[in-house]
Amino acid sequence: MREAVRRRKQKPSSSFGVLANFLLRRFAVLRPLLLLVLAPGLAFAQAPAVPNYFDLQNRLEKPDLGAIHTLRFLPEDDYPPFHFALPDGTLTGFDVDLARAICEQLKIACTIQARRFDLLEGALNAGEGDALIASIRIDAASRARFDFTAPYYTTPARFVARADASFEATPEGLAGKSVGVIGRTAHEAYLKTFFPQVRRQTFANRGELYAALRGGQIDAFFDDAITSSFWLAGKNSDHCCAFRGGPYTDSNYFGEGVGIAVKKGNKDLRRALDYALSELARRGVYTDIYLKYFPIGFY
């Protein structure tokens, strides 16, 4: 069920960016000192581009919320930085903060109760929650089981190269270059189709892929941008590398994005959630939440 619903990303347990944001939130009184300590690690980060999935020129009409008195969100219990528990047990993360902001926007009572990922669909169908905000990928298989809001983020692909690389990440700029990719993935298929002149070098896992770029065995690699952003922000990259070009968002290869899932036929709630997401984007709240958890943007 997991693979059919969501393409899982690597947990960024060593992400410098997540740690930095956690420390800054947790110890607000020490923020000026922490910024001085953390600044060298953050200085190498590229200014993140914040995605925009909503037409801000045409505001959605606020739906009738008379039938919606409370909203029960169900995230996954352990998938940082999207949803995870702080040492004191407080649930936090990108999806969790977004859920709280939605409830504030709609001015309705809200509860957030985490579940194991494999229990989420059953909990929704059993009436234990109203909406799943758990990084669920929108595709044909998941659409057969849920109705979705508009995507609130996508999973683009990007090239990563040494920070001092001088070539452009274009078909012409990468012609003849050695580009690493995980074998038998959508990323490899995309490279074959749109970058036929690169010298593809396939790897079995990301550990090997990252080591090859750091060691100079390849000129660049092509992979999931979210996972790559965690590696770039983490200590294992040793600040060696940076995104080049992109992002690449072809839904035929990389999916339609991630949305909030509700029961099939629950149009009122879906419309309310779409309205709230659009308003959060218009007011800049979405941007604030995005930058809080993704100091190296993946777009």
Write a structural description.
- This protein is an alpha/beta fold and 299 residues long.
- The chain folds into two domains: 2-154 and 256-293, D-Maltodextrin-Binding Protein, domain 2 (3-Layer(aba) Sandwich), CATH 3.40.190; 157-254, Periplasmic binding protein-like II (D-Maltodextrin-Binding Protein, domain 2, 3-Layer(aba) Sandwich).
- It is 36% helix and 19% strand.
- The protein has helices at residues 2-5, 16-26, 31-43, 94-106, 120-125, 140-143, 186-194, 206-214, 225-233, 251-254, 267-283, 285-293; strands at 70-74, 84-85, 91-92, 109-112, 131-137, 146-148, 157-162, 178-182, 199-203, 220-224, 241-248, 258-263.
- The strands form three sheets. Strands 4-1-5-12-6 form a five-stranded mixed sheet. It has a five-stranded mixed sheet with strand order 9-8-10-7-11, with helices on both faces.
- A hairpin with a 5-residue loop joins strand 2 (84-85) and strand 3.
- The protein is elongated and about 60 Å long.
- The model is unreliable at 1-45 (pLDDT under 50).
Radius of gyration: 20 Å
Strand order of the largest sheet: 4-1-5-12-6
Report helical residue fraction: 25-40%
Indicate the proportion of strand residues.
15-25%
Number of helices: 12
Mean pLDDT over the residues: 86
Number of strands: 12
- Please tell me what the overall shape is: elongated
The CATH superfamily of the largest domain is known as: Periplasmic binding protein-like II
Compute the number of structural domains.
Answer: 2
Order of helices and strands: HHHEEEHEHEHEEEHEHEHEHEHH
Indicate the CATH architecture of the largest domain.
Answer: 3-Layer(aba) Sandwich
**Major pleated sheet:** 5 strands, mixed
**Contiguous uncertain segments of 5+ residues:** 1-45
Oligomer: single chain
Distance between the termini: 28 Å
Structural class: alpha/beta
CATH class term of the largest domain? Alpha Beta
